[in-house]
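The material for today's practical consists of a large collection of protein records. There is nothing in a record beyond a sequence line and a structure line. As an example, a complete record with its sequence and its structure tokens follows:
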Amino acid sequence: MGARWQVAILGSLTIVVTAGCSMFDSRGVDLLKPPPPEQMRMSTARADRPFAPSLRGGSSVRSSFSGVESGYAIEVQDHLVAPTQKAVDVEVAGAAAFEVREGAGSVTIAGRTTVVTMGATFVVSEGEKIRVEATGGPMILRAYQFKSQ
């Protein structure tokens, strides 16, 4: 007898909830209609300093700052390594300190590979080769490069 009461109560409750939900009005709230075609224009905004693709298939690069001071050439560059690229060589003019600004991946310096994530920093001495591979998504590195003039 107890199971019949549970089925009856559950059935009644289902009918009440279904009827209650269908009785309420949306109070005039509806999805937004698309704008007229004359108002649908693409944005003309452009990045101030976009990444320039590397000619050798390496990382895309943009320069944020460069100058010569006290016999040293100083340049700050951002390197974008796409996740679809395999390991790419990053060209460094002189010594450099790198900061991983976004993403994660692996960095190989002088034959030693290290896994890096956002916030990690590492240095490269003048003449050392650096190879970078992004994992999971794009990786952006900021390079602070120094070279004696």
Q: What stands out?
A: The longest helix spans residues 2-23. The helical segments are 2-23. The chain has a mean pLDDT of 85. The beta strands are 60-69, 72-81, 88-90, 95-102, 104-109, 112-117, 121-124, 130-134, 139-148.
